[in-house]
Amino acid sequence: MNFLFVHQSMPAQFRHLATALANDPRHKVVFITRQPDASLPGVTRISYRPSRAAHAATHHYVRLYENSVLHGQQVLRECLALQKDGFRPDLIIAHPGWGEALFLKDVFPRTPLLNYCEFYYHGLGFDVGFDPSTPAGLDTICRARARNAHLLLSLESCDHGISPTHWQRESHPDAFRHKISVIFDGIDTNIVRPQADARFTLPNGDVLTQQDEVVTYIARNLEPYRGFPQFMRAVPGILAARPQARIVIVGGDEVSYGRNAPDNKTWRQTMLDEVGPLDPARVHMLPRIPYEAYLTLLRVSTAHVYLTVPFVLSWSCFEALAAGCVVVGSRTPPVQEVITDGHNGLLVDFLNPRAIAATVTQAVANRGALTGMRARARQTILDRYALAHCLPAQLRLLQSLV
Which domains can be identified in the chain, with CATH numbers? Predict the structure, then answer.
């Protein structure tokens, strides 16, 4: 069979699924992406670039939609070229988030289309306006509604959808939820697992092990959507309460979601300016690190902090649980779907740095009593989110569509 994947950031959520299909010699798998050098074994990559960017003069409510149309139009051209070469997919799996899925059914009207329904934006009740320090004005609320234009068109045109969590499915309009299945991407628990003798080497040469008091905070980018300001405001309290603790912060300085930092600064610099000098021998702020190093850091973590506004739940939350971390998570709906306070993790008010510091301090101080919590954290992933369960469920869904 022929499978066509479409995702701007190949392989992203489709890594395991595309690989599994490509491993079957009966299948041909093609992946359309903006990535110029991404690769998966047995998968044919087609890279593209939109013909131009959205015009700066376009109304700011509509600029994202114009950009989405440009992405969809270029993907359409690539699909026409595939069609001309004799490739006709039996199933298309696409992420509609950047407009790439807009015109797929116009090229292949008889081919089932499965969309990855990650999130649907709202002016109230979700991420927008969650933090009272940045209230949402009417302009922001209207822009949030308008940014769904390409998502709504893609949702209408697809034959079925898949969401990684129930909460993310519920963000979509009620009229379309009936055609969205909930199946998580899958954590490879053979790779993401505890390791008692793990050793993480810091840039200064210091080595951290499970015998040390290690507080970790990891995000793709250090920004407000993932609670970076709140965590940084909690850091002085953690350092004062646990004199032997080392805090390791990992993340980039771009902005994945939400607003930029003021005065053309990064959020890293903004928060360092706010909280004042931090002892570099105890607080280690790292850029993004290789995946294996990231897993090693999780394995030596005494308490891992994961915070998010009501938005897409990060893989890092699932991976931290799979690695047996004591996760101190925000008491927000996406986290509460996975973590039950006191059972497989600890929950705390996202907006309360003092409470974050106190909960982390208690987790470190009581580390010996939290062995059961670590085991239950991993068991949560084994029972509900492991690749061994999720991948077969995804394959069954694909088979039902074909």
Answer: 2-186+387-401 (3.40.50.2000), 200-385 (3.40.50.2000)
